[in-house]
Fold this protein.
Amino acid sequence: MPVLKKMESLLQINPNGLYCAAGDFYIDPWNPVERAVITHAHADHLCAGSKSYLSARPSEALLRARLDVEAAIESLAFGEARNINSVRVSFHPAGHILGSAQVRIEYQGQVWVASGDYKLALDPTCHAFETVACHTFITESTFGLPIFRWPEPGETLDEINAWWRGNQQAGKASVLFAYPLGKAQRVLAGIDSSIGPIYTHGAVERFNGIYHDGGVALPATQCARSAPPKTDWTRALILAPPMAKTAPWLRRFGDFSTGMASGWMRIRGTRRRRSIDRGFVLSDHADWPALLSAIRGSGAARVWVTHGYRAPLVRWLAENGVESDAIEMRFAGEQEAEVADEAEA
Ligand SMILES: [Zn+2]
Ligand SMILES: [Zn+2]
């Protein structure tokens, strides 16, 4: 699509985040505001304390779980539009986690799409990424370097299955660290649950329930906390958030092997630095080819790049004739592996 000449910027960054002046709302603000439009329920996109929230319908229960009980939350079905002060707002699947959405806004013939986080790989736990035509596309670039290319998710899930079986034969429990909202459920939906019993850390179990209520089929799991004292853990897979890695919580499992499912496992040395036995490359973000393909698909003549490795992507776009800018968001530095330790990826 050609960019309309002399248009005012429909979105801008101000001290509270990404702001639409014509509609008087923010997209994923990082401070409490009057009106917040939310792409998805991950903590770096969802700040508590705003007066009202609008999200895609399958996100609503996750927002409720993360915000104060009295928060005013409304939601729209994917594709349904609402006018906010004559700016037309709609949500379109981003394929990242349950309910994750790209926000499309339209005003006086200008169309912008803020992607939030997204991936193109198929994921049975959420709606598949939808290509939405726009003049300006705001893309994430958490993994915006050409070295980031993901294997087929099925291959990674097979590796996890084989590791689990191998641990059973060696008489060890299998403790798999995964981001508790999104990644853990994706692993659950894809692994071979006939291998053995599956236990969870409370942080994972909480979101499993919301996924289940949202119609996502997951195998049966049990909170490790409520398992009987003499449980034989050697056949079990235990799903836990990365923050549980150094917790006394782990002691109950006796002899165990550790694994981590994350896009960061693609970088040599990350696993060793985090003292994890096995790394499994499984990301809920677009890899380099998927970023380029999503950008191309949008038809946007202008691209704003946020999150992660922005400079390499901006450079590539410039070399390929696309006007682009790196946009400074609050969580700059997210690309540092150490910072990313607890970040979803
Ligand atoms: Zn996210
Ligand atoms: Zn994010």
